[in-house]
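Lab notes, practical 5.
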Amino acid sequence: MPMLLRPLVNMHPVVQQLLALQQVDARVATMRSKVDSIPRETARRQKKVDDLSRQRDAVETVIEQADGQYQELETKVSGLDAAIKRQQDHRDVSNNASSFTAAQHQIEYLTQDKEALQNEQLELMERIEQETPKLAECDQLVAVETAEFEAYKAESQVLEDELRGKFDEVVGERGRHLDDLPEQSLAMYEELFESTDGTAVVAVDGSHCTGCYTRLTPNDMAFLLGGSTLITCKSCGRILYLAG
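Output from the prediction step:
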């Protein structure tokens, strides 16, 4: 039989047990909240690392695409250089004005195309130069956040194991408080504990329920004073007791 609280006024014995159980359940709820918070925090930190990694990868993709486009343009520029060289050779051996002029025009057109491609290359180089420092910054952020996350996981695992051990102890203590409790009273209490955010059993203060501040009837006050009947608030349904 678990140790009960010191009787308050003429408290019904079942209410006495339920009040003691409620105190243990409050500790159970607190411990459960602490244990449950660790996976949530782990997921939050993991998401932060993943988000930073995606941002880093996006910047790297921009650089790689720009570099790939630059190399493609470089191949085209080399092809134009070769074409210009052929036209120059053709022009230099021309033996008539029309052939010379045609070759010269081709050289001019090809040169314009080459300059246009080189302008595109310049824009790509500027883009790469702009994004490269961003990539370095992202790399640093990912490295720092990853290191912090790994350290947190190691620490949180130790903490979680410790909390789960304490949680199991409190749950075991709760089991001892269930001895001799009527099933109907326990079921009512557990439903109230869930629906009232852990305040299933509350005191009466100046003939008012401290759960909802509804005034009790004279009959209910008399029954509470007698301590022989389990009384619940007619408004909120909470289990009541008189605090001495």
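Observations recorded by the TA: Residues 33-180 form a domain with the Helix Hairpins fold (CATH 1.10.287.1700). Residues 1-7 have pLDDT under 50 and may be disordered.
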